[in-house]
Task: structure prediction
Amino acid sequence: MSRIDELIRELCPDGVPYKTLGEIGELVRGNGMPKTDFAESGVGAIHYGQIYTYYGTWATETRSYVAPETAAKLAKVDPGDVIITNTSENLEDVGKAVAWLGNGQIVTGGHATVLKHSQNAKYIAYWLQTPDFFAQKKKLANGTKVIDVSAKALAKVTMPLPPLEVQREIVRVLDLFTTLEAELEAELEARRRQYAHYRDSLLTFPEGGVRWATMGEVGEFIRGRRFTKADVVCAGIPSIHYGEIYTTYGVAACEAVTHVRQDLEAQLRYAKTGDVVIAAVGETVEDVGKAVAWLGEEDVAVHDDCFAYRHPMNPKYVSYYLQTETFHFQKSKYVARAKVKRLSAADLAKTTVPIPPLEEQARIVAILDKFDALVNDLSIGLPAELAARRKQYEYYRDRLLTFEEAVA
Result:
């Protein structure tokens, strides 16, 4: 921090100038490039959706490629350019950015804008993570279901622009935090792989050692009833949306994270305590079929792209089993290979599940609960350390990127 303070006192004693993104560089809006354009090799490409699901603050390699003839029609991204998303389903993701630091030119498509400039690319990408930028984009955003901040709107965003030497020093410090966070994430991911292996081992039984039955023989599948984002309220009927199963919930839940309007009560369908709620839809084969055991005291409304599985087994045992490679292999045979992956109740009913005695199910659950806490509980161990490191990073990032503005 002292080195940065010294540089600011030396290079900009009267404050740091603030400029709009439009003044800083040229904003080039992307076009086209659906995922169907992706190829095994060719010209590197960054899809807008990957910026908030895959990439970090910067990238030196692309995850995807397009054919050269496709690339010729797309927005070009040169080393040092910053790609900014224009569209998302939520305000947090829209405006996320990645600095391209690879060796050659790549391309991007629609719903993204390329900022071409002469500043430090990482500095700009880091600043686009700050509360200052969030407050500005919130005022510029349009839409409800789909949020959009256009290239024209982005050009109006103002940001502090200290001298390049200051930018480089800030980036150096923030890179250190990012590296430390990445090391913790890598260690946690290794623990998760170890846990997954142990979970699958516990839920693999010797041939003839346990009874197997189809899920349809053991229980019944109750399809939920439709409700939309417009039906969500602060206080109302507890509900589970299919997307929450693979983005929000863990193996089990006692409280719902969303509620829907009370006047929908009669037309909805519900999971009871002990039911396992299974996602019937997902963007990937991995997501469809994921599950959460409902352990709440009251019934919970289930979305129509979910099933409430009612059964006599230990609910967490079932939920853990539905995470295994054995179940994934079975469900993969039935998942519809369309753009949106779907799994029907009839096909789920054909998958088999091992059924040891309830005492053994409880023993397995107790062991897996301990492992699950070690890799997912934010109050202990590595998850807690990572959460604390992220808060520390955000604090210093926002402090480092806040300046006294120079008087015009």
Summary: Residues 234 and 259 are 6 Å apart (CA to CA).
